[in-house]
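Throughout our pipeline, every protein is held as a single compact record rather than as scattered files. The remainder of this section carries one protein's record, kept here as part of the documentation.

===
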Amino acid sequence: MKRLLAFTVCLALFVLLVPGMRAVAAQQEQVDVYEQKQLVKSVVFVVGQDRYFIDNKVPGIKMDAAPFIEQGRTFVPIRFLSNALGVENENIAWESPRVTLSEPGFPVVELAVGQKQIKSDGKVTKTDVAPLLRNGRTFLPARFVAEALGYTVEWDAQNNIVLAYPKGQPKPDYSEVVDYIGGEQPPVKEEPETPVGSAEELYDKAKPLEGKPFSFADWNFAPEVQKSLQDKWDWLNTTNPVIQEVTVADLKPNGIEIAGKDGHRGDIIHDLKVTPDGVTVTASNPGKSMPKFYLVEEGKVVRYRGGGGYMGTVTGTLTAPVDHIRAGTPDGMAFLPPADLTKVTHIMFELGDELLLVQNPLYKGGN
C-alpha cells in the first residue's frame, strides 16, 4: 500500500512538473530580444554551426539546421532566424511562396521564395538574392531580414560570423561566442557589398574613369609580348587609350565606370576580392552580363578571363576560380600553368579605349 501511495505521489508530481519543463525548453529555444518594445540584444549566427547566440551568451540556442552561404549571402532557416530576431512563432506566416513576419509593434516584413525583394511596412527594397527552398525547408537571407527588423548587420570573415545588433548602438562584444566556437574558423566566401538600385541610379553615382594616355614605356613589356598584345587586342591600337590605376578602396562607395569614348554605358566595377583560389568581381552592366578581365603578372604577361554570363539583374557578382582564367600568353601559343595570384600585380578591366588597373591586394611583391 505504501509503495502504491509513493508511486501515486510521484506520478502526480510528474504531471504537475511536465508543463513547467516544457516551458523551460520553450524558453531555451526562443529568447526574447526585446524589452519594452526596444531592441536591446545582439544576435550571432555562425556559418556551418547549428547554434545561434543572443547577447554574447553561450552555449546558445540549438537549431536543427546550420546557416550556409550561397550567392555570397548567409541563409538561415525561417523559424530560427525569425525567433533570433524577436519574432514569435505565431507571428511567422508561411503561405507558399510568401513569408510574412508580423511581430506587433515592429515592421511587417514580407519576402517570397524566388523573388529578389523584401518589403518592410509596405516599402519595397530590391535585394541581390531571394529566399531559398532546400530539402522542403525555407531559408531566408539573414542580412536583409535583420536590417528590415531594425538591426545593423556586420560580417566577421575571420570567424564566419554574422553579427546583428540594434541600429545606432555601439558594436557589442561577442568575444565569449568566439571563444566558445573555438576562435578562427575555416574561411568561407565573404559576403560582398552588392549595390542595389535601378540602372539609372547606379550609373549616376559611379565615378568616371580618369586617367592618362596608355604607354608601353610605362610597363616595360618584353618586345615579343608587346607585339603579341598589339596584334591581339584592338584597344592597344586605338588613338590614345586612357589608363587609370586604382586600389580596391578607390572603387568605393559607388564604383568606377569604364565607358570608352563613344559615350555608351559601360561596366561599373564596384568591388574586387582576390584569394589564392580565384578572383571575385562585383559589377554593373546595362546588358546584365559580367565584364571580362585580365591578370597582369610580374613578368608583364597578361592572362584573360572572358566576360559574359547573364546576371539577370544590372548588378551581380562573379567568382572565377584561378583555373578558369585562361592560362596562356596573349598570342595563345605558349601555355602556362594556372596563375599564382600572389604574383599578380593588377587585375585589368577594359572597354573600347579605356583601361582600369586595380591593384591586387594579394600581391606580395617580388625580388
About this structure: The two ends are 93 Å apart (CA to CA). The first helix runs from residue 2 to 29. Residues 8 and 50 are 40 Å apart (CA to CA).
